[in-house]
Structures are given as structure tokens and as C-alpha cells.
Amino acid sequence: MSVYGYIRVSSYDQNEDRQLIAMQRSRVPRKNIFIDKQSGKDFDRSMYKRLVKKLKYEDIVYIKSIDRLGRNYNEVVEQWQYLTRVKRVDIVVIEMPLLDTRRGKDLMGTFLSDVVLQVLSFVAENERESIRSRQKEGIEAAKARGVKFGRPPVPLPDNFEEIYEKWINKEISTTDAAMRCGFSTSKFYYTVRKYRQNNDQMK
User: Fold this and answer.
1) What contacts 21, CB < 8 A, 6 or more positions away?
2) Cα dihedral sign, 35-40-43-45
3) Which of 9-23, 81-95, 135-149 has the lowest average pLDDT?
4) Burial letters for 39-53: b for 16+ Cβ neighbours within 10 Å, e otherwise?
5) Edge-to-edge strand list for the sheet holding 60-63
6) I need a labelling partner for 167 at 20 to 30 A (CA). Which of 94, 107, 116, 152 fits?
């Protein structure tokens, strides 16, 4: 029997320290901790897949909370059943003692664990949908107030139109045009595209 830990944070700029501390307190060997830094919307995660491949009968997997396993209700339940019934390993959710498959191996224990899992998974996904809805409503309200989203407009150099005309007429190269504007080549192309869009809207 081996003991493993699975940690997930949503992005590379998020810190996994709190989950690592929880694993250490549960005596999970550091070498057996698998960490993914990506969204929990599905299970297409490299370290999770690597962990599942290593799992053998009666191994134990620790996770800090159910949302660290995933945020898609149907897929969380599906993965839980796959791990416990096909791989036949135990799962311990540190923050939810009821979700510890080492306890209550009888029919009632399994039933209770499944019910708690489904309720928690539903709540986690419902919260995610609520956040999306609130974000959408906030954006729509901000737009109604005239708030503009996206990059701020690139200020044009005083001589941009003159340089642009020369560039269009192929009197100067792109590199030369960008240099005269004080831009990189990519920024020059971006500015030209925005300049044309603005002109088209004014026609």
C-alpha cells in the first residue's frame, strides 16, 4: 500500500503551500505528491493522469478538499467511482472526514460517502456557475455605464499618418516605419490594424 497526495491550483501564479502543509500533516511523502497548475474544469491534467497510472489496489489518495479534485460535478463523481471501484483505492478528503473511504466499507458507509460526495460536488459546480453569472452581470452593467474593456488605445506618434502613408506606398520598409514610430514591428502592425478599424468606423 502506497500513500499519495494530489494538489491542484488554478494557475501558475497561485500558491499551493496550504495544500502542501495539509499533506505534510497527513504524513504524505513529498515524493508522492502530484501537483497540477491548471483549471479544474475537466480531468485532462498531466500530473493527475500520471498519478492515476501509478495507483494500485488499496493505495490511498489524499486531497485537501473536493474542489481540488475538480469543479465539474459529473466528472468528479465519475472519477471518484473510477478510483474507488475500478482502481480500488481509497480517497481521503482532508477537510471533509465523511469523505474518507477507509471508513464504513459496508453498504451503508459507501452509500453515505456517495451521497456526501454528490452533494458537495453539486455545491462546488453550482458556486462556479454562480460566479460566472455574477461576472457576466457585472460586465453587462459596466458596459451599460459606458465602461470599456480590453487594451487601452495605443497613442499615435505625431508623425504616424505621414509614416503610414509612406509605408503604404512602399517608400519605407516595415522595420523602418516601426523604428520611426518608436514601436516594435509587432506593435506597429497592431497600431496599423487599430488605425484602419477606427477609420472604417468613422466612414
Assistant:
1) none
2) negative
3) 135-149
4) ebeebebebbeebbe
5) 33-37, 3-9, 60-63, 90-93
6) 152
Residues marked as catalytic = 10
User: By the 8 A CB rule, do 150 and 164 touch?
Assistant: no
From first CA to last CA, the distance across the chain in angstroms is 73
Q: What gap in Å lies between CA 122 and CA 116, rounded to an integer?
A: 10
| Domain residue ranges in the chain | 3-130, 160-202
DSSP state letters, 117-129: HHHHHHHHHHHHH
β partners of residue 91: 61
Helix (H, G, I), strand (E, B) or coil at 144: helix
Q: Region 53-77: what's the mean pLDDT?
A: 88
Looking at CATH, the fold of the domain delimited by 3-130 is given as Rossmann fold (3.40.50)
Q: Which residues have C-beta within 8 Å of that of residue 125, sequence separation ≥ 6?
A: 71, 72, 73
pTM: 0.59
Please state the rounded mean pLDDT for residues 44-53. 93
β strands within the chain, DSSP E: 3-9, 33-37, 60-63, 90-93
Q: Mean per-residue pLDDT for 92-116?
A: 75
pLDDT tens for each residue of 116-154: 777 776 776 676 677 777 777 777 777 777 766 666 565
Q: Looking at this protein, which amino acid is placed at residue 72? A: N
- Listed in sequence order, the residues at least 6 apart from 66 whose beta carbon sits closer than 8 Å to its beta carbon are 76, 93, 96, 99, 117, 120, 121, 124
